[in-house]
Amino acid sequence: MSNSFGRLLRVTTFGESHGPAIGCVIDGCPPGIAIAPEDFERDLGRRASGRTRHTSQRHEDDRVEILGGVFEGRTTGTPVALLVRNTDARSKDYARIAEQFRPGHADYTYWHKYGHRDPRGGGRSSARETTMRVAAAVIARKWLAEHHGVTVRGHLSQIGEVVPDGHDWDAVEGNPFFWPHAAQVPALESYMDALRKSGDSVGARVTVVADGVPPGWGEPVYGKLDAELAAAMMSINAVKGVEIGAGFASVAQKGSEHRDAMSRQGFASNHAGGILGGISSGQQVVVSVAFKPTSSLRLPVMGLDVDGNEVEIVTTGRHDPCVGIRATPICEAMLALVLMDQALRHRAQCGDVGEVSPRVPGESKHSP
Amino acid sequence: MSNSFGRLLRVTTFGESHGPAIGCVIDGCPPGIAIAPEDFERDLGRRASGRTRHTSQRHEDDRVEILGGVFEGRTTGTPVALLVRNTDARSKDYARIAEQFRPGHADYTYWHKYGHRDPRGGGRSSARETTMRVAAAVIARKWLAEHHGVTVRGHLSQIGEVVPDGHDWDAVEGNPFFWPHAAQVPALESYMDALRKSGDSVGARVTVVADGVPPGWGEPVYGKLDAELAAAMMSINAVKGVEIGAGFASVAQKGSEHRDAMSRQGFASNHAGGILGGISSGQQVVVSVAFKPTSSLRLPVMGLDVDGNEVEIVTTGRHDPCVGIRATPICEAMLALVLMDQALRHRAQCGDVGEVSPRVPGESKHSP
Amino acid sequence: MSNSFGRLLRVTTFGESHGPAIGCVIDGCPPGIAIAPEDFERDLGRRASGRTRHTSQRHEDDRVEILGGVFEGRTTGTPVALLVRNTDARSKDYARIAEQFRPGHADYTYWHKYGHRDPRGGGRSSARETTMRVAAAVIARKWLAEHHGVTVRGHLSQIGEVVPDGHDWDAVEGNPFFWPHAAQVPALESYMDALRKSGDSVGARVTVVADGVPPGWGEPVYGKLDAELAAAMMSINAVKGVEIGAGFASVAQKGSEHRDAMSRQGFASNHAGGILGGISSGQQVVVSVAFKPTSSLRLPVMGLDVDGNEVEIVTTGRHDPCVGIRATPICEAMLALVLMDQALRHRAQCGDVGEVSPRVPGESKHSP
Amino acid sequence: MSNSFGRLLRVTTFGESHGPAIGCVIDGCPPGIAIAPEDFERDLGRRASGRTRHTSQRHEDDRVEILGGVFEGRTTGTPVALLVRNTDARSKDYARIAEQFRPGHADYTYWHKYGHRDPRGGGRSSARETTMRVAAAVIARKWLAEHHGVTVRGHLSQIGEVVPDGHDWDAVEGNPFFWPHAAQVPALESYMDALRKSGDSVGARVTVVADGVPPGWGEPVYGKLDAELAAAMMSINAVKGVEIGAGFASVAQKGSEHRDAMSRQGFASNHAGGILGGISSGQQVVVSVAFKPTSSLRLPVMGLDVDGNEVEIVTTGRHDPCVGIRATPICEAMLALVLMDQALRHRAQCGDVGEVSPRVPGESKHSP
Predict the structure, then answer these.
(1) What keywords sit in the KW lines (chains A, B, C, D) (predicted)?
(2) Which of A62, A164, B327, D21 has the highest local Cβ count within 10 Å?
(3) Is the ipTM of this complex over 0.85?
């Protein structure tokens, strides 16, 4: 079950980076959702590699074939199956990589776990798998918007030491970094060019938010909305940390500062990130995610081979100098999938609970 | 299923803060583990409230009754059921709290989700529930130690703005803060006394580590060891962030710095926190957790009542000025439970895979 | 997870026949259901042993303590925990039974699986566990009746070679056999007296039906309503077969006979047992269950001891000459639990699907 | 999750009868199993339609494409994905069938559940889906044989009123009915020809057995081996009943007859069907399954259309007069998948339990 995700809206992905195809099965999808192959284009395009000089130069079509679960343009309630053929998977020469463990990669751990691994392009551990997360989330985003008015969006909130000087949602889609401040983009371009030239890589931080989530989504104790968001984000390749709302900053906060006072006008702040006791409060749900710098560098590093010998490892080929750059649509996808799953679970258990009390206006003016 | 945790070693907890009892059922436990009521005393004592003046003055016996799954002192493979009666649950007067939503608490979200809630002491959303996590983990720790030589421990790594000036594991259990540097303890005592006097609270950061984890535990993609650790930690009350290894610091790192070079002597560093591609590498598994400051303060704050009226809320009663102080054993418990669950899953799928390659020595000299 | 049952309404049971207590945790229960300790009395009484001379003479109070999940008499949405203390568990002398494997019992298989077992009264493999199924189903029955007008009932449909000569629901609760034909009861009493005197036992067949199930409950392929009913019934102690509707009789039927023609007046017959393609059709759901004769007899049989020696085994003590007699409430319980779980799942996925077509009247005049 | 099956070896199937393809994802598969596209040919051929004049004349290639999880001919531990394109799906004219509900089919129930359905060839409710069960089980059978010496086989044990006059495993694969008595085959051919000519259909009973299962597989209470077999079999299209061992015949048995005495030479009989207390005993595991007669007949029947009008329904096209004929490989597949899943679960929990006692020889001479 380690390749499945979600409890009621359950996504199972399959396929390797350099195998014939990748795909997914989306089980538990409500019937009647309009879906067509072209619906996947926008988000797969935003995630795709090869879009700019700042990302890997692998060029994949990412054309989605719908294999089941859709009839006459609408979901039927049976599993939606999606397939994407790999077309630019060059793996002529993987003999050496098959014998060596690259530091910072899954090579060594897969080998010790399974005793047999597909070394071509990282096999199953490649970020190529995230294509199917984004594809599955296209359906979730559609359902969330149509049935609940919930929207999901995100932006880069740090690259290396650089943080945004301002916040403008309109800027985000206008630059290859999903950066929320247009004036900084030229400087970022130079920064990335220099980095690429140096042969090194850098980490990044992504922030994703959901607007319009009603109070009541999420489940106590072990099915908490924040717990499942943490798992969802941490399951993305290269992620090393997850925060909800104020996150680690809350360690240095006082309680009188952190708790978000409530009035008839709404919440006075959103340090909670829209989640209290594991359940959505009606405020913006805010999640931040730390991506490590990729370890695939042409700068040499000491590693080992399968026989335990020390070897100097140099990674050539097509790699992102900052994997976080393309991660925004992936984090959005995971947020959307978790929310839809929780929405269905909430309807299952609490479908009889009506409006019990006036709601605090959740729309906060607070940017994440 | 939101009150169950783990896939093969499955812990289900139940009970409310001021109900008659709390308890848990541990399903999937291997047979033959020696277990007695007194085995729970040490860790429940470490977690217990009322231990020092710095924590809540609720005094619970936390005496564990074994209701099933153990015969002649050893587990039988059938579910281990544990019960702890609540003895110091004072809830004479909850009429007012039943009508009001405390900011920063689950009151408002439970109410909108369920339309009916147990307001006494936070009901199910109280940290009292974590007693059973610690109890269940006593069995996991025993099994991990006996069958794999794996040990789990932890310490506080930040309170408010204060960080340790040094690191000494031997100091941790000798002070009420699980603080790893004895010389700082008097200053911390003063800090906490002043905080308590002020009526305010503060956040904390806990770091837990597992030693001796072999390479190969964990599962790719959605069952990743780090993803499940993130969910486990985020499911603890008051947690707002989780990091593996370098965590958010990796955002500002270069790839040449972050990746942990490998040699025959071992890994040169442990920025990965012992996990690569979702699978343990044989290094120390290192997890850090951010706890927010408690919102239950005697300092007044604006809140709402169930009719939507604004009310000034003052929380009296027994509360921790820093909930993170008692959180170390809870984080350790979640780490142990996740590890044992993954160990069983690994044995299920890969029980036929023998030693395939020389292992890099995992024992790093690096403190977390 | 082998001690949990259901996907959204999830029941976990624990405890052994001669341990201190048995209990259950019901997770996923909708909030707002009125529940009190006395609500469990009727069904636990129907299931209880010691009620007549035809069943085991163990006398248990079966007094239910609610440990959590209920506040001011109504469920809160958090896990409902129920506890029943064992009060009549005599197990002074189990030394011999601990060393021997009784044919037809779980002794041998538990021993080879776990290497350590609780031999007192069958331990976890005792039908005592079914007490908690019946208890949990009290809540399910209440919810099904109140929210959907669904009722569940059952009767014995065969003992040994004896089948009912007529069918009258009103007769069922008026005799200790749940037999649907009052005139046969005296003969059955004599039959059972003779059987008990002979020291032997006999099998039985139970039929349970649900009225009022709307079309649409159940899920295709692997979550079929009939598949889950089959598992639920087969999980009851001593069950060797399960049928839906015509069951094994359909093997000898022609298609023109088996298929249930539909008209505006309803279905012409109910060979399907109310389920088509794994989904309820709106007809009565009809399930029949085969119980084997108990193997615990005072008539000697050849068995083995733990060292592999042949031993003659004679079982004295309190045993039912026909375990199926008390099974009707247990089968009803499993039917109710499966239906409620499927109802919640249906609401989760298809809560947006309204009335799409006129419904065929489901009320068939056909007795099961 | 209703399209997934198994707990640790988890099979998810997708696709519709007349959609572009059907497929499956097998998660949790141990690494190192040798697998090639041609390994699927034998069992898919045994299941295939169009093999004889007694089965549907749809001719599918059933060529399996491996999309992931296999590298250099061996499984890697990542999900094995299999795809079969539909090539003989004629659905030019489904307008009428889209508007009508065929009695005895899932048309009516899918419509009321989902409000939108794929009517072409039954869509997802078609037995075409079982192709992927058989494909997935090819891997399970291989693993069971290689790692545990467990083999799975089956035969038809009744067609209509006809039962075998003798039992010879060698006869089974030599005739199109999987019939265990060669001398009866000509008569069966005539019987089926007459049935086909009459336009009617008939039910069947299939018996499958597993040899070599060690004692200890299965889990108590809700994860019982027999409970999971019951669900697995009942999830197959057209199944109405499941029996373990003596099944419904045990209702009329005495306890002294049913219980299988044990000696050093083995069990005296196998009424239990190889399962005691939900756990394998080391005897042959024996399961019988009732298949109803297909409802798709050219003989007219009264049905309804989507507007609630009564319509006379005549089904032309390609249909099996006895769907049970092709069901033997499907039942075998489900038996193999359940066994492998339980074997992995047993290893997970009880991998430390060694040989605790002498085993009774399990090889019984009893034919099912």
Answers:
(1) Amino-acid biosynthesis, Aromatic amino acid biosynthesis, FAD, Flavoprotein, FMN, Lyase, NADP
(2) B327
(3) yes
